[in-house]
């Protein structure tokens, strides 16, 4: 039995033709960028979620939820994470 596989990029490209879908994706973009930035900085620092949690005086579960996007962290929390990673938080409107 042959399965038809759809390439994710092709699927996404097709979905983005729908204005409502595109609008929802655009709403989620800042959260996605934040998650990626935290993960990237943590990996560049060569530390685990548990290590980052210790540095920010929280739990690994909290860091996991922030990185997965299952919670929207406060600005205070994001700043604590940035400082624990030796970074400065910069916010821009573009």
At a glance:
This protein is an all-alpha fold and 94 residues long. Helix content is 66%, strand content 0%.
Give a written overview of the molecule.
The protein is mainly α and 94 residues long. It has one domain: 434 Repressor (Amino-terminal Domain) (Orthogonal Bundle), CATH 1.10.260. Helices cover 66% and strands 0% of the residues. It has five helices and no strands. The chain has helices at 8-15, 19-45, 49-56, 60-68, 75-84. Helix 3 (49-56) packs across helix 4 (60-68). The chain is globular, with a radius of gyration of 17 Å. It starts with 7 loop residues before the first helix and ends in a 10-residue tail after the last helix.
Give the class from helix and strand content and strand pairing.
mainly alpha
Largest sheet entry = none
Q: What gap, in angstroms, lies between the N and C termini?
A: 50 Å
Low-confidence stretches: none
How much strand content do the residues show?
under 5%
Q: What is the multimeric organization of the chains shown?
A: single chain
Tally of separate domains: 1
CATH architecture: Orthogonal Bundle
What's the CATH H-level homologous superfamily?
Answer: lambda repressor-like DNA-binding domains
